[in-house]
Specification:
The chain has 7 helices and no strands. The model has no long low-confidence stretch (mean pLDDT 81).
């Protein structure tokens, strides 16, 4: 009995990881499609449509993706990426991504109306003198419980 090539491939790895490998293959297909989409438009054409902050985001995401793919490549070659300079590069890129995020968050943050904020805080604060006077002078409001 002769084994087909597919049967031979099935024996090369434990069957328990088949689902993981299938999901990984699907993810690679998604990455491939996204890269094809990105590569179909020239960089200068794409940058013309973006403001400088969006351009920085695109550059950072692109370089982070490229370095992440290299990280995976190193792992598949039996090289520990944690001991490779790519780790420091990914950390450096993350630092810049956080800086861009801070800038974006500052742009999105609403301006504080100081007058409205102080009135809100003043009215929301508990005033012990007013509360004591209120509870001692006025009877408790609400229905009295009826006894059965």
């Amino acid at each position: 009995m002769e084994m087909s090539e597919d049967d031979n491939n099935m024996e090369e790895y434990p069957t328990e990881i088949h689902d993981y490998l299938a999901a990984f293959e699907k993810s690679l297909g998604s990455v491939d499609e996204m890269l094809k989409t990105m590569m179909s438009v020239s960089r200068s054409e794409l940058f013309q449509k973006l403001d400088p902050l969006e351009q920085a985001k695109l550059d950072l995401v692109s370089v982070y993706t490229l370095n992440s793919m290299f990280w995976v490549y190193l792992a598949t070659q039996g090289i520990n990426p944690k001991e490779h300079p790519v780790k420091q590069e990914l950390e450096r890129i993350r630092t810049y991504m956080n800086k861009v995020k801070e800038i974006t968050d500052k742009k999105k943050a609403s301006k504080l109306d100081k007058g409205a904020a102080s009135r809100f805080v003043k009215n929301a604060l508990w005033e012990p003198n007013a509360e004591n006077e209120h509870t001692s002078k006025t009877p408790t409001k609400g229905k009295k419980r009826q006894r059965d």
